[in-house]
Design a protein that fits this description.
It is a single chain. The chain has 144 residues and is α+β, with helices and mostly antiparallel strands. It contains two helices and eight strands. The chain is 17% helix and 49% strand. The radius of gyration is 20 Å and the shape is globular. The longest helix is centred in the N-terminal third of the chain and has 18 residues. An eight-stranded antiparallel beta barrel has the order 1-2-3-4-5-6-7-8. The chain starts with a helix and ends with a helix.
């Protein structure tokens, strides 16, 4: 193996090892600028498990998978692939995350847009009956 190839292989091994240290879940609100003059805000949930992860955007009803790409200083870089809600979210963005205490500084770039957030842990848990339809009572049924 040539010296430059060996150095690159070592760098990849260190980068993969560093990615393994990022595991957890963080949530919050992101602000996006672009494409063009567009400016929006939406919810973002980040789940990392080393070299892989998931992004969910509950208020946009879309999300996808993350694959570790490398480290730039203290920033861990992941490639995002939207798996559902492709008509509501931009695909193939590059996500950079940097731990800040118990929070995570998060940035997404791609398709002429940039989004930033400070995501926090722990994420709020939904109430135990969230999403479960409640039975109608006799009073409510009579009112309809």
């Amino acid at each position: 193996m040539r010296p430059s190839s060996w150095a690159f292989a070592c760098l990849l091994a260190v980068s993969s090892a560093e990615a393994q240290t990022l595991s957890g879940q963080w949530c919050g609100w992101a602000e996006q600028t672009g494409p063009g003059d567009t400016r929006t805000q939406w919810s973002a949930n980040l789940l990392l498990d080393g070299a892989t992860g998931h992004m969910e955007y509950p208020s946009l009803e879309c999300g996808g998978t993350l694959t570790f790409e490398g480290v730039d200083g203290k920033v861990h870089l992941y490639r995002e692939r939207i798996a559902y809600g492709r008509d509501r979210c931009l695909d193939n963005g590059l996500i950079g995350v940097e731990p800040v205490g118990t929070s995570m500084r998060w940035q997404w770039t791609g398709s002429g847009a940039k989004a930033t957030a400070l995501l926090h842990a722990p994420c709020p848990r939904p109430p135990p009956n969230a999403g479960t339809p409640r039975p109608r009572t006799a009073e409510v049924a009579d009112a309809n």
